[in-house]
C-alpha cells in the first residue's frame, strides 16, 4: 500500500497521539513515538518508542533524524530542532514556523491582529508590575506567553485587588469577553492547498477546572453564524499557510460577534467525536493532509456529543472505571479509554462519544452518561 515504507514520527505520545496511531493502522503506517512518559498512552501501539524530553534540542533532533515525515500532538516542543530537520529535508507538518507562532500566545494574538482576524482587545506585558498601567481594560485575563494549556498559565484580574494574584512573566492582558457560547471549528489544509472544514461545535467547560466537559456537534447556532465561523477558520489556516489540522476556538458574543480566542495546530479535544460522528475523523483527516492525499468528507453521520471522562475529585491511584458496562448497553454510546494507569482529580482519562437524532436528545443523554461513568481509584 502507499507509504508502506514511510519513516514517520509523532512527537508526543498522549491520548491524541494514541488516536492518531489508531488512524495510522488503517493506512498501514507504523509511526515511531517520542514522549517523556515511559507509560504514555501511545506506548503499546508505537512501532518504536523513545522516552525523552520534547523541549530538549538533541532529543528531538535525534528522534527526527532519518525520518521522512514528522508531526506533533502537542505544541510544547523544541522548534529549533524541527527547523534544523526541515532544513535537512525532513517534512515537518505543521511547519515549524507555524508552531513557533502558536507556541507563544503573544505572537499568536498579534498574528490575528495583523491579519484582520477578529479577536478580543489585548495588550502585551513584560511582567506583573505592568498590569496596573492597564486598568482601563479591566476586567481582563492575564495569559502567560508560553507554557500555558488546559487553563494553566491564565489568571482572571477583575480589579486592582486581583493584581496580587497575577502571574509573574511575559504575556498579555486580554479583555474579558461576555460571550453567549464557546465554539470550535476544525479545519484541514494539504500541501496542495486543498481545505476542508468541519461543522462548528459548541463547547461546555467545567466551571472550575477550565477543561471541556461536554461538546455538541453541530453547535446550536444560526446558519449565518455557522458559515461565518467556518470562513474565519479557513482564513486562519490560509493566512498561516499551514499544512495539517487546525482547531480554531472562538467566542460568540451576545450581540452575534465571533472572536477567535486561541488555535491549536493538531488534533484537538473538540474533535474527538468525529471518530464516530463524521465520515472522516479528525485523526484520519490530519494524516490525509500531511501525506498530501485527497481530504475526506467532513459531513456528519448524526448529531454527536462528547463527554470528557475526568478523574474524580478525591481519588489518586490506579484507575477504576465505574459504569462502563451500563453505558455500553445504551445504543449510540461509544467509550474511548486512554490507557492511563493512574488517575488523579480532573485528569483526562477518556471520553465518550454519543450519537443521537437531535441535539436535545444528545444533551439529555450526555448528562446521563456523565452521571453513570466515574473514574476512581
Can you lay out the helices and strands and say which pair or pack?
Layout: E1 8-11, H1 15-26, E2 32-35, E3 48-51, H2 57-64, E4 69-72, H3 79-87, E5 91-92, H4 96-103, H5 105-114, E6 122-125, E7 140-144, E8 154-157, E9 171-175, E10 179-189, E11 195-197, E12 201-205, E13 212-217, H6 223-240, E14 244-253, E15 258-264, H7 274-277, H8 282-290, E16 304-310, E17 317-318, E18 320-322, H9 324-328, E19 333-337, E20 342-343, E21 348-355, H10 359-372, E22 374-376
Parallel strand pairs: 1-2, 1-4, 2-3, 4-5
Antiparallel strand pairs: 6-9, 7-8, 7-9, 10-11, 10-12, 10-14, 12-13, 13-16, 14-15, 16-21, 17-20, 18-22, 19-21
Relevant terms:
single chain; 377 residues; alpha+beta; Rossmann fold; D-amino Acid Aminotransferase, Chain A, domain 1; 3 domains; five-stranded parallel sheet; 22 strands; globular
Structure description:
The chain is an alpha+beta fold. The chain folds into three domains: 8-92, Rossmann fold (3-Layer(aba) Sandwich), CATH 3.40.50.20; 121-175, ATP-grasp fold, A domain (Dna Ligase, domain 1, 2-Layer Sandwich); 179-376, D-amino Acid Aminotransferase, Chain A, domain 1 (2-Layer Sandwich). It contains ten helices and 22 strands. It has helices at 15-26, 57-64, 79-87, 96-103, 105-114, 223-240, 274-277, 282-290, 324-328, 359-372; strands at residues 8-11, 32-35, 48-51, 69-72, 91-92, 122-125, 140-144, 154-157, 171-175, 179-189, 195-197, 201-205, 212-217, 244-253, 258-264, 304-310, 317-318, 320-322, 333-337, 342-343, 348-355, 374-376. Strands 10, 11, 12, 13, 14, 15, 16, 19 and 21 form a nine-stranded antiparallel β-sheet that branches. Strands 3-2-1-4-5 form a five-stranded parallel β-sheet, covered by helices on one side. A hairpin with a 6-residue loop joins strand 12 and strand 13 (212-217). Helix 1 crosses helix 8 (282-290), helix 2 (57-64) runs parallel beside helix 3 (79-87) and helix 4 packs across helix 5 (105-114). The longest helix is centred in the middle third of the chain and has 18 residues, at 223-240. The radius of gyration is 20 Å and the shape is globular. The N and C termini lie far apart (43 Å).
Amino acid at each position: 500500500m502507499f507509504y508502506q515504507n514511510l519513516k514517520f514520527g509523532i512527537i508526543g505520545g498522549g491520548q491524541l497521539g494514541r488516536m492518531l496511531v489508531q488512524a495510522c493502522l488503517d493506512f498501514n503506517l507504523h509511526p515511531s513515538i517520542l514522549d517523556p512518559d515511559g507509560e504514555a498512552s501511545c506506548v503499546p501501539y508505537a512501532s518504536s518508542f523513545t522516552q525523552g524530553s520534547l523541549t530538549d534540542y538533541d532529543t528531538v533532533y535525534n528522534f527526527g533524524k532519518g525520518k521522512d515525515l514528522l508531526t506533533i500532538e502537542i505544541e510544547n516542543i523544541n522548534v529549533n530542532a524541527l527547523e534544523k530537520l526541515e532544513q535537512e529535508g525532513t517534512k515537518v507538518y505543521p511547519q515549524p514556523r507555524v508552531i513557533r507562532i502558536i507556541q507563544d500566545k503573544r505572537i499568536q494574538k498579534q498574528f490575528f491582529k495583523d491579519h484582520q482576524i477578529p479577536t478580543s482587545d489585548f495588550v502585551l506585558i513584560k511582567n506583573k508590575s505592568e498590569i496596573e498601567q492597564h486598568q482601563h481594560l479591566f476586567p481582563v485575563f492575564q495569559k502567560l506567553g508560553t507554557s500555558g494549556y488546559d487553563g494553566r498559565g491564565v489568571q482572571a484580574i477583575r480589579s486592582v485587588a486581583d493584581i496580587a494574584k497575577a502571574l509573574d512573566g511575559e504575556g498579555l492582558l486580554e479583555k474579558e469577553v461576555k460571550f453567549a457560547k464557546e465554539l470550535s471549528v476544525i479545519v484541514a489544509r494539504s500541501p496542495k492547498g486543498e481545505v476542508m472544514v468541519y461543522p462548528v461545535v459548541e463547547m461546555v467547560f467545567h466551571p472550575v477546572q477550565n477543561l471541556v466537559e461536554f461538546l455538541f456537534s453541530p453547535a446550536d447556532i444560526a446558519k449565518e453564524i455557522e458559515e461565518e465561523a467556518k470562513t474565519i477558520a479557513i482564513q486562519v489556516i490560509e493566512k498561516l499557510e499551514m499544512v495539517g489540522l487546525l482547531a480554531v476556538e472562538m467566542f460568540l458574543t451576545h450581540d452575534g460577534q465571533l472572536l477567535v480566542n486561541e488555535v491549536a495546530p493538531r488534533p484537538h479535544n473538540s474533535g474527538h467525536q468525529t471518530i464516530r460522528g463524521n465520515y472522516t475523523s479528525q485523526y484520519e483527516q490530519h494524516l490525509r493532509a500531511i501525506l498530501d492525499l485527497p481530504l475526506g468528507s467532513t459531513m456528519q453521520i448524526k448529531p454527536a456529543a462528547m463527554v470528557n471522562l475526568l478523574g474524580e475529585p478525591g481519588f489518586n491511584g490506579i484507575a477504576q472505571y465505574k459504569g462502563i458496562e451500563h453505558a455500553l448497553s445504551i445504543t449510540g454510546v461509544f467509550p474511548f479509554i486512554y490507557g492511563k494507569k493512574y488517575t488523579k482529580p480532573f485528569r483526562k482519562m477518556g471520553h465518550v462519544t454519543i450519537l443521537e437524532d437531535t441535539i436535545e436528545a444528545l444533551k439529555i443523554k450526555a448528562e446521563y452518561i456523565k452521571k453513570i461513568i466515574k473514574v476512581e481509584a
